[in-house]
């Protein structure tokens, strides 16, 4: 058991007892990188889920186990702080630690390190259990989380919410494609980030590094639907740039994101 | 040195001396799969290039070496025969063997196997060297291919060409996105396959397995451009279905594909 400070620097942060830590190494492949040869943020999300999935499998509560119970883990929020974005062919270590759970939510942290031990990123995340047939959130079953060695707490962990889009600068439409739908039968979490990034200017993306990304999923989008990806941007006092994103599916907000950037 | 039969069952096939074989294992990640939990064809292309890239690096002629010479390998054709499509979490072995080269083209085979040794797929491919500044094909430099242990042959290997689209059934437009451009500064080869597949019907894709795919790249597409992905389909005598694809960029044909499918 490790004592872990959750929600670094946020309101309501506290030292809490966390569960069994797990780590895995991976090499960053060229097809997981953007045009500058650095790991793309959508691919980071995919890699993180692979690592937590490996831990679940190792503890005997992997996808086979949850699917037998008619449920699957669904991420509803990620909050990422980047120290450095890893690059093509680099080997990195990802550690993940389950933190706690309550009736509906389970919390987990991730940290990435380079082989010299320097921290690359920290990620706070929250998951819910979805009933695979009803496609609805259901209470977390104790037998699924017991091997994580985490405590049930009645209090919810308050993660910072992405900011609300108030002023619209740019928007672009995207139709959900066949390969956006993954083996969990819904749009892969990483695709919302694709849609958010693609509204930003090519030269901006090439000349800036993501230093913070807060992404919150609100409502599933279905195959063939057309989403609108909207963005506004603000220059912060310290010279960094903040982009505020909203992915809309008709009247519904499907996803909201706040991203902070610094010049390369 | 291995004697290898290139271009299985095609006109002009012959036993030729091939070069140094290389193999690598990989696990199929969930985000590399389609909604049925099987490896998607675009991701297979990415994985293949990773394996040949690893061989180049191991032989001292990796990307660092080619970039110093101002060039990069570019795939211009793949011809894939599937015996079985690997599935999520499956560990597979990929073998690759460089075959021969001539003034402009270099040929390489890939084979995939499951851990029981059953063959999953065979892939014939051809590569050219691109000058990174002029973005033009240049003659193959001997120092880049020497470690492969392959022979220079004046005769070109004739790979089967994808069929020409004659009748149009369906088409869809796609705009090149930021993350379609990879660290090689052009649209990643796998994305053309995304565009080809996404024109087919969701239910068709879910109920059919790809058994053959021939993809030939003709002309680079640039960021922001809008491509038209067109398809027609034919039912073969043996009950399989053939789809004939064309990706157009304005007046230019960017890519052509022939795919064969069987019912799952």
UniProtKB/TrEMBL annotation, chains A, B:
This is Medium-chain acyl-[acyl-carrier-protein] hydrolase. Residues 20-148 form the Acyl-ACP thioesterase N-terminal hotdog domain. Residues 167-262 form the Acyl-ACP thioesterase-like C-terminal domain. Coiled coil: none annotated. One of its GO terms (molecular function) is acyl carrier activity. Belongs to the acyl-ACP thioesterase family. Keywords: Fatty acid biosynthesis, Fatty acid metabolism, Hydrolase, Lipid biosynthesis, Lipid metabolism, Transit peptide. The keyword Transit peptide applies. It comes from Isobaculum melis.
């Amino acid at each position: 058991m490790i004592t872990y400070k959750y929600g670094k620097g946020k309101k309501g942060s506290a030292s809490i007892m966390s569960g069994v830590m797990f780590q895995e190494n991976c090499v960053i492949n060229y097809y997981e990188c953007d045009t500058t040869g650095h790991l793309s943020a959508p691919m980071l999300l995919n890699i993180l889920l692979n690592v937590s999935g490996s831990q679940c499998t190792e503890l005997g509560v992997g996808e086979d186990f949850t699917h037998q119970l008619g449920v699957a883990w669904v991420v509803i929020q990620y909050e990422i702080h980047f120290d450095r974005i890893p690059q093509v062919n680099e080997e990195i270590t990802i550690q993940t630690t389950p933190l706690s759970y309550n009736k509906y939510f389970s919390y987990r942290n991730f940290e990435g390190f380079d082989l010299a031990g320097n921290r690359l990123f920290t990620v706070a995340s929250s998951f819910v259990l979805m009933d695979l047939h009803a496609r609805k959130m259901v209470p977390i079953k104790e037998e699924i989380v017991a091997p994580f060695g985490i405590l049930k707490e009645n209090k919810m962990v308050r993660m910072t919410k992405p900011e609300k889009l108030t002023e619209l600068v740019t928007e672009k439409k995207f139709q959900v494609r066949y390969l956006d739908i993954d083996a969990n039968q819904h749009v892969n979490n990483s695709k919302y980030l694709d849609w958010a990034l693609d509204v930003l200017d090519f030269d901006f993306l090439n000349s800036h590094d993501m230093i913070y990304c807060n992404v919150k999923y609100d409502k599933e989008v279905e195959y063939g639907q057309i989403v609108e990806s909207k963005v506004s941007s603000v220059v912060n006092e310290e010279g960094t740039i903040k982009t505020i994103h909203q992915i809309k599916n008709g009247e519904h907000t499907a996803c909201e994101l706040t991203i902070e950037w610094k010049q390369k």
